[in-house]
Amino acid sequence: MPHDEEPLSDEAIRGIEESLEDIRAGRLYTLEEARAELQAIRRRGLLE
């Protein structure tokens, strides 16, 4: 795996921390769930 010498920004670190908290709290979707939700939205005409 390539190594990036540039440090993560504070914003990137906060985003990672928020994502980890979402995972711990169970706020996540499988690919299939996300796909089904997007298809339902598209069928209702809310997404082009």
What does the model show?
There is one protein chain. With 48 residues, the chain is mainly alpha-helical. It has one domain. Helix content is 58%, strand content 0%. It starts with 9 loop residues before the first helix and ends in a 5-residue tail after the last helix. The model has no long low-confidence stretch (mean pLDDT 91).
Q: Would you count the extended β strands for me?
A: 0
Helical fraction equals: 55-70%
Sheet/helix structural class: mainly alpha
Order of helices and strands: HH
Mean pLDDT across the residues is 91
As for the number of domains, it is: 1
Give a quick precis of the structure.
This protein is 58% helix and 0% strand. With 48 residues, it is mostly helical. The chain has one domain.
